[in-house]
Each structure stands twice: as C-alpha cells, then as structure tokens.
Amino acid sequence: MTTVLDTTDHRTRQVRRTLWLGFALQLAVAAVPLIDLATFDSITEHVRAAYPDWSAEDVALDRDAITWSLTGIGVLGCVGWLVAVALAKRPNASRITVTALFAIGLMTSLTLLSMGGEGYDLVVPLAHGLLALLPLLAGLAAVVAVWRRR
C-alpha cells in the first residue's frame, strides 16, 4: 500500500535526481572552455577570425576574457543547482527557487547565443553557446517536477 508520505518522498527523490543531473551537466559546461583552452583552442581561432589584424597578445586577452566569462557563468550555475538541491525537500521554496533559477539560466543562455559585438557576429562561439543549453533541459524537467509534486 502506498501512502501519501511514500509518494511525496518518491517525488522529492525524483526532483533531487533531476537537480543533480542538472548540476553535473552544468559542471561539464563550466569545464569545457578550460578544456578547450588546453586542447583545441577554438576560442582563440574564433577571436582571430573576428579580428585578423590583432596581435597575438590582444587575441590572447580576448580569448581569456571569453574563456573565463564562460567558466565563471558555469560556476555560478553550479551554485544555483546546489541551492536548488538544498531546498528540494521544501515544496514551496523549491518551486520558487527552481523556477527562478530556470528563468535566469534561460536568459543567460539566450544572451550567450545572441550577443555580438564589433568584429564578432557572436562573442561566444556558437558551439559553446549551444552547449550552454544542455543544463536547461534538466532545468525544464526540474520545473515540471516541482510543480507536479503535491
């Protein structure tokens, strides 16, 4: 026989699993710019394509700004996921928190995908911007899960 408490505990566990998945995806997204910097260095090529006349030092400065901005945004996203996990057992708090953090994440991701400037069509390389959408899938699932929970 299933009791209300069992159902609530099951839903809370389901929400927490979704939030931990989001945290893991966000952590991966935060690490990708640093991995790229150490291996493929596609951000440098992106900057060089936008500003072919720049010196290597100027390209490196812009590359570092983009890389560390993406990493910093990713780390802040991780903090948001951890806050949501901590509040997952409190239905009203988790509904508000998860929904607000999803909205912030969505706006941040859309900004990364649309922000241009001077020589750039997009400041953030498209691949990095699209990758930033991955945690939003878990975020959307979490929003649905917290609002379905009773």
TrEMBL record:
<keyword id="KW-1133">Transmembrane helix</keyword>
<feature type="transmembrane region" description="Helical">
    <location>
        <begin position="122"/>
        <end position="147"/>
    </location>
</feature>
<keyword id="KW-0472">Membrane</keyword>
<feature type="transmembrane region" description="Helical">
    <location>
        <begin position="65"/>
        <end position="84"/>
    </location>
</feature>
<keyword id="KW-0812">Transmembrane</keyword>
<protein>
    <submittedName>
        <fullName>Uncharacterized protein</fullName>
    </submittedName>
</protein>
<feature type="transmembrane region" description="Helical">
    <location>
        <begin position="96"/>
        <end position="116"/>
    </location>
</feature>
<feature type="transmembrane region" description="Helical">
    <location>
        <begin position="18"/>
        <end position="35"/>
    </location>
</feature>
